[in-house]
Amino acid sequence: MQAGSNQAITEATTPEQLADTASQAIARADDLATLEALRVEYLGKKGAISTLNRGLKDLAPEERPAFGQRVQQALGQVQEAMDARQATLNAAQLDERLQTETIDVSMPGTPPTVEKAGTRHPLTIVMDDIARLFEGMGFSVLPDSFCAEVETERYNFEALNFPADHPARDMQDTFYVDAGDGVLLRSQTSNAQIRFLEYLVAKKHDFIASPVQVLAPGRVYRNEAINSRKSVTFHQVEGLAVGPNIKFSDLKGVLHEFVRLFFEGERATRFRPSYFPFTEPSAEVDVECIFCAGNGCRTCSQVGWLEVLGCGMVDPNVFKAVDIDPGQVTGFAFGLGVERLTMLRYGVDDIRHFSTNDVRFLSQFTGVLS
Amino acid sequence: MNISWDWLGSLVDLKGLTPAEVADALTNMGLEIDAIHTTGGQFEGVIVGHALAIEPHPNADKLRLVTVDIGKADPVKVVCGAPNVDKDMWIAFAPEGATVLNRKDGSQFKLGKATIRGVDSAGMVCSLDELGLTERYGPAEDGIWKLDGVLKQPTAGQPLRDALGLSSDTVLEGAPTANRGDWMSVRGVAREVAAKFTRSLSFEGLEGLAGPATGLPVAGNGEPYSISLPDETLCRYYGAAVLEGITIGPSPAWMQQRLAAAGMRPINNVVDITNYVMLETGQPLHAFDRDLLGESGSLSVRRAKAGETMTTLDDLERNLTPEVVVIDFNGAPVALAGLMGGRESEVRDTTTRLVLEAATFGSAGIRRGSRQVGLRTEASARFERGVDPAGARKALAMAVALLAGHAGAKCTALNEAEHGAIQLPEITLDLAHYQNLVGQAIDATEAEAILQRLGFELLSSGQQLKVSVPSFRMADVTRPVDVIEELVRVHGYDAVPYTLPAMPKAYRFDDPVLAHEEQWRHALASSLADIGYYGCNVESLGFLETAPDAVRTSNARANQLALRQHLLPGLAEVARHNLAHQPDVALRLYEFGRVYHRAGKASAKYSGVKETPSLALLWTGENKQQAYSHLKGAWELLLSRMGISPDAVRYEPVTSDDPLAGLRWHPGRTAQVKLGKVILGVIGEPHPAENYLDAGVPVAMLEIQLKPLFEALGKRPPLKFQPVSAFPGVSRDIAFALDESIAYQDVLTAIHKALPPEMAKAVQAIHLFDEYRGPGLAEGSRSLAFRLALQAHDGTLRDTDVDAWMADFKNQLKRGLDLQYR
After folding, report:
1. Pairing of strands B297-303, B534-535
2. What end-to-end distance do the CA atoms of chain A give, in Å?
3. Residues of chain B contacting A121 with CB distance shorter than 8 Å
4. Is the bond into B728 cis (omega within 30 degrees of 0)?
5. First-to-last C-alpha distance (Å) of chain B
6. Per-residue pLDDT tens digits for B704-714
7. ipTM of the complex
8. Contact status of B370 with chain A (Cβ, < 8 Å)
9. Which of A339, B211, B355, B521 is deepest in the core (most CB within 10 A)?
10. Residues of A in contact with B500 (CB under 8 A)
């Protein structure tokens, strides 16, 4: 080592010594403030490491690389010690915070103080309303357990008379899931028909003496090409009536009455033939456009009608699938699209509002009577 | 399915009917017509003009005056704003009274008299989009449409449509339902129109279009092609017509226009004719180039072998599996049955000889193959729905006739194979059945007429109607109820009256839990609304759940999705959205929703997934507020709404910061909520190291399962009235200091235990009214003050008795708890 050129540094300390001194000081630091002071002392712009680095220019050119490397090593060592200590102190501080913030979780809560009433979600309001209107016509709402969202093909397709390998199965794009072979997310609430009829058959229910009329609201899934914004879940309310003498004209009457009550006024309804595997005959129901009274506007694509639901007479094959003799009873079934009805009733222009749950949207429904 | 009015009119008499009327009728019969459009431009009265001179507009820099020759003695002057109008240019000219499109909104309007900036304009020089011709002649350049080059010999004054050789047609855009293969054909639609309006059909009228029908030769005996159909379910009939002397060229204009109206691009006479026959009859055809296929040999329809490959017309090499049905020629696949032909035997410009295939493939096989290969074609859409089993040979004859007329073809041989004769189903309908199901009687004569017009053959008439189903409806009409549907849809759904069923007995579940859960949910939702909470609807699919019992989609269109296992992560997302838009809002959110876990093995009747109805609450507030306490207060209100005493629910502190309900929690401010021995869920504040909401506001959350709660409510004995005491009550306070590690709920339990039996009967309520820490108390201890309300049913309580009880009680309590009375 040549005297003179690196005198300033040897006078102070070598990088190794510096690193050792620093590491010891860091290990002794018992709070974050002390550690921060040490960071400035050693790693700051005017800190000890920087001073060593500045001395580099005083060295002979051939010595610089080796010495520079030693400084870098020291820097690394100090930084590592600093980070480790910081983590320890942070953890300790967090522990202490968790400790001091600990409360008696069993203490009685603060009774709610209310500035403004909240509300049920608009979809719930509409589903509840649908239930109330149909309850007035003798329907009962089925409990959750009849309305599985994850289903087998039997309940979503087979018992509902969807032929295997038939394009009818494409009418709703269905999500399959990895819970088992043929397990899927129901594409319609109609599985509840089968679940409920099976339950009644097992209980030897007498449909002749006691016709049934039930509703099954719930969530359904459609496997659509989605992006982060588009919804793949929707809500439907399924209706089912089974008895010795249920007729297509009854279906028309019940749904017409529902439309009158739901949209609060006499409105023309139009029943159009359609195809659903589980009903025969099948119909789609249009309601006279509520925005233009049937004159044609943008919402109804100028046709004056709004499509609101699908329905029909229970197909004999559905009865057979649950061991009911289709010669003894008839029935009707319908499926209401809740999002669609909600949008129509309140003029909601974008379906995404329903899943975004912005309180500026939700709070608009506070005053709704239902 | 686009239906050309012109084409439809060639098959059924449409005299006096408008497209709108027919569209309405079809919609009311179940073939929904979504829209009606016209082809050949959307204009009337536009003519060819010739710009003779251009001069500036006296009052506007950007407008010019164009002198236009419109084939009359005197040219006219119009104002034009287009930058590209030039002298000697041929233009599309709309005189006053012509109809064109508004460029801004695409609506049609009729040109009136116009004066633009003080100068009279005799009409308008049109751009492509004002004529509705952009699709056909576009893309449109800026400004007006230049006809130079478009018209070979322009003549001023000639109607534009004539000059362009455009015919105008109206197209009904139909959406056939999945059960009606016959609606995938113009003939099928024509049949419906004929049935509805009682019109005559003319299906055999190829004369004039195709030239004289040549008919098919008698089927040959395995020469040049022997055909075998080993599996009837894959293919019932296969016919191959051999044609010679083809000259490939354009198909006739009328055919091209009908194809274009139907949405198919004209290609050449052979391809166009096979498409034309498919669109009209619903029977897909396929043409092989005979020179490329092979002079003779054996054709069969079979499943592909695993590992077999074939290159289709679209130049893609397809890897085949036994799910795919192929046409086999001498041992190798040459076409994907009902989907697409092979590249190697494709018809090209040099083709002179054809093997033309018409086959009745089974719908299931085609559908499975289509899904397997990931290919859907016009042909597969028809086979999947089911084609007329008797239609293949007729379609072959029609195609052969058209090819003779328009491609110079001569049919030299026909080879066929078929599985048995078609058995037309016979159905007997009791008209009383109709009345019972529909709620309205139908006249036997009318029923018979409707069915006959739809192509059914009447076997016996009267109340017991017996019909045989036509071959083209065999797939979807198999039972009396299907015949009822035919009758009611043609007779008209509108004609069915509105009635109401007899009011049934309301269905009640014996199980009180099932009977009441919906009402309980409703009651809780009302309570939550009353205390300012908003109900949320969070997507149940999408969260990336990684737990081994998570349920994930296996066929999502884009990314794999999972069903949520907890409600709170989603509700936290809702909170984050709201705080991002309104940082100062105090959120009160809840959701009733399900969470999903795999449990057990799936079977035909069980999905292998447990769906757990749950409730989540989320509260945010201002700084320094005790989030936990506020949320617990809301939860306790719900408990009280359910008539559950707050003392019946215990809060067990969590011992680690392991995630619960999908989130990390503050171990000192989080508790598991227990009802009896059942863990309902969790309540608490988020772990300070995890700021879920990116907001520096206090947050508290709760997620509980509803089932155990509703079960507890269901098992509760029915409410029974308790007499109300007629005597005044008294109250006593006690206060004591004790170590603060002793939880309030344990203190309360100790209090209940320490009450002397007589006194316990009189205690109406025990209420904590003060908690104190600070001067006067040891470090780590707190003082709790309770008020006991007492009342007896049999008389006024005497102070001396109560004092004695209290002394007894306080002694007893001190034995149970390490406390100092204050």
Report:
1. unpaired
2. 93
3. 534-537
4. no
5. 89
6. 999 999 999 98
7. 0.87
8. no
9. B355
10. 137, 250, 253-254, 257
